[in-house]
């Protein structure tokens, strides 16, 4: 099968997000200028640089009446900071609850029963029990082709690692099984590892 995206496809559902998978989930927490916390998952998310450490996520939809498309991006645009919380398998239902669209000013931490803690380097809440959290300052918001597509790039200013996830000096992802997004309504989790030595 071959298709060109601008001409559509003959399948019942768009396969694009199933092709580019699995994708890590950035559970993005922000705080508005009014002090209200926001928490939302983004599956177009990844690390993009080591030195200094940088991450990105993309927002691809619109919330009516909200500048920058979504609460998360609008808050980041206004405050210059955000937090990336890593989602473990045990938190899948809470993460999914925070993906619902709420009126502006809604607090997803409270709605989904997510325990929060204050960040160390930025004025923002984080998911207190997340296996890892990255505190970030905004570097740039980049518009992409398409009406509502934006990339947010941040520099990591602080890192939280849950103590039980550190085994023999290594951050062990198998102990919390990170959740990853596939296509359609599907997810997966990391349960096992294998290593490959890079050639000299």
Automatic annotation (TrEMBL):
The Swiss-Prot or TrEMBL record annotates one GO molecular function as: FMN binding
- Name the Pfam families for this protein: Flavin_Reduct
Flavin reductase like domain sequence ranges: 20-173
Annotated protein name in UniProt:
Flavin reductase family protein
Question: Which species does the entry assign this protein to?
Answer: Profundibacter amoris
Upper lineage:
Bacteria, Pseudomonadati, Pseudomonadota, Alphaproteobacteria, Rhodobacterales
